[in-house]
Amino acid sequence: MGAGESPMMDSAYSLTPEEIAAAVEACGEKPWRAAQVCQWLYGGRAERWDAMTNVPAALRQAMAGRLRDLDGTARVREVAAEGGATTKLLLGLHDGEMIETVIIPARDRNTVCVSSQVGCAFRCAFCASGLHGVARSLSCGEIVAQVVRAAQRIGRRPDNVVFMGIGEPFANYDAVLKAARLMNDPRGLGIGARKITISTCGVVPGIERLADEGTQFELSVSLHAPTQALREKLMPVASQWSLDALMAACRDYTAQTNRIITFEYTLVAGFNDRPEHARLLVALLRGLKCRVNLIPLNPVKEFAGEAPDPRDCEDFLAFLERHGVNTTLRRSKGRGVNASCGQLRLRAFQR
Ligand code: SAH
Questions:
Q1: Cys-Cys link to 291, which of 55, 91, 189, 326 (CB 3.0-4.6 A)?
Q2: Segments making up each domain of the chain, as ranges
Q3: 127 lines ligand 1 (CB under 6 A)
Q4: Does the domain formed by 73-350 have CATH 3.40.30.10?
Q5: pTM of the model
Q6: What pLDDT digit, counting tens, does each position of 280-290 carry?
Q7: First-last CA distance in the chain
């Protein structure tokens, strides 16, 4: 925490352009100064209030007195990179907690994978994020700051954002939606809504709320199994919201929004990667506007499952495609940098 900062201070990246305008007005400054501040926050990517050289000093001081300093929201503590593949940022928060942000380059695009909570309460069997439960949710500013840090690192605005880092976005719904809107706002980061994906483990009320928002954000649902019995073995959330309830919410979502859902399906050898599972999955998704993203398990030592043979992954993919399900297979990168969710934070946690 910087000198003079109080733990109650909000992050500068938590304010909407309207809220920045109100703060500017409260300082007795002209409204157009708000645009300058936004420009520094998101375009110029200033790291300190002092760096906003064309903003009057009194305004800078007033902002600094009310809001956390820009580099105090999420400081880069460690960078793990692997030759041209993913770069992972370990970020320290003002209260000493740590989160991860991953930059994934693909061709000429960069995708940033952001965290929504410190840890996760949902404890999916293969996911390192849930091993120690959840400490707290992130503020809107802590979420937005991750994209700013990634932009600083790559030297330009990222093309895509996915809420697939640590945490369950719908367990922190308000901050996540506000952050996504700020990322999308042309006065903020200006990333297209359809380039921002929110991924849920299956929190049904979150899916229902998102359907009502009227936004164009992408929705991804972590399915991982085609039956209730199998899904419960991997994902405790399935006993809270059943597969039937989840699929009903997904069908309502697509009907209401006319948008497609992406189902994430992590393939675990012998567990959910057999031809019968592919058959059951095709039946489950029949008539639903969706696509499937297959992810071969990224093994973690706390989970006994193994990644399938690449041939089984290709067969699973081919079966789905043959039956008219639009499917992609993620040929995973970045194991060497602990690229799967929560692994870097976990390592730091265990040091
Ligand atoms: N809580 C949200 C977002 C975070 S996880 C959700 O569950 O969707 C992002 C995706 O990575 C999820 O589909 C998750 O199940 C998957 N994942 C987590 N650990 C993994 C691992 N070890 N191997 C493969 N996929 C994993």
A1: 326
A2: 7-67, 73-350
A3: yes
A4: no
A5: 0.93
A6: 999 999 999 99
A7: 22
